[in-house]
Amino acid sequence: MEPFQFLDPHFLISLAGLVGIIIIVFAESGLFFGFFLPGDSLLFTAGLLASQGYFNFWFLLFGVMFAAIGGDSVGYLFGKKVGPSIFKKEDSLFFNKKYVEKAHSFYEKHGNKTIILARFIPVVRTFAPIVAGVGQMNYKKFFIYNCAGGIFWSILMVGGGFILGETFSSAEEYLTPIIIFIIAASFAPGIWKLFRKK
Questions:
Q1: Nearest-angstrom CA–CA distance, 42 and 9
Q2: Residue 118 sits in which domain range?
Q3: How many Å apart are CA 19 and CA 173, to the nearest integer?
Q4: Is residue 191 part of a domain?
Q5: How far is Cα 131 from Cα 47, in angstroms, rounded to an integer?
Q6: Is residue 96 assigned to a domain?
Q7: Any residues with CB less than 8 A from the CB of 105 and at least 6 apart, and which?
Q8: Cβ neighbourhood burial of 39 (10 Å; 0-12, 13-18, 19+)
């Protein structure tokens, strides 16, 4: 196995299958050790493969939706239970305070809509629901934004890959540059913010 091959969406999909994709989305959405998983590119690739008959599109789409919403809910409950003590936790292999602080800063700046916006930003996506729980955000309000973000993100990522695969029969040949573009687009807001600061 090549180094970091486990982060390659195509490899993950072939290894894990539909159930594995759903578990990965759940982990990346709300378990603090899932921040490194390739959510956007994974779902786009899965959608593209669904267009070629690898998966049932509707099982994939609704499975991802439920996993995304459920993962965020678990993250919120974890943050609410642990509370401010999470900020005192020492850095470790699966935990780094700067990621929580980054999500907290994003949450402070963008308010409730962060739960939707964070879906499209790697790392922040994992920690935003935890921070919402730490901040004791009203759960009913959180759940509404969580559902909206989870549904929109799932449709955009899985549906985008599916439509591309349906439109262009040779789309899989260009999967690597497409994935690179998706990853770059995901990190673009953070890079732009850093550039503006400097």
A1: 5
A2: 21-197
A3: 25
A4: yes
A5: 30
A6: yes
A7: none
A8: buried
Name the CA radius of gyration of the chain, rounded. Answer: 17
Those residues whose C-beta lies under 8 Å from the C-beta of residue 109, and which sit 6 or more positions away, are none
The answer to whether residue 104 is domain-embedded is yes
pLDDT of residue 146: 92
Token readout for 145 is: 């934004």
Instruction: Kindly state the helix (H) or strand (E) to which residue 154 belongs, with its residue range.
Output: helix 139-167
Residue 52's pLDDT is: 84
Q: Residue 136 is which amino acid?
A: Q
Report pTM: 0.74
- Evaluate whether 58 touches 192 at the Cβ level (below 8 Å): no
Indicate whether 137 belongs to any domain.
yes
Mean pLDDT of the chain: 75
123 SS3 class: coil
Based on the structure, what is the number of domains in the chain? 1
Is the CB of residue 43 less than 8 Å from the CB of residue 189? no
CA distance 183 to 174: 15
CB 105 within 8 A of CB 61: no
Residue 79, both tokens:
């943050």
| Confidence at 191, pLDDT banded by 50, 70, 90 | very low
Give the C-alpha separation, 72 to 132, whole Å: 10
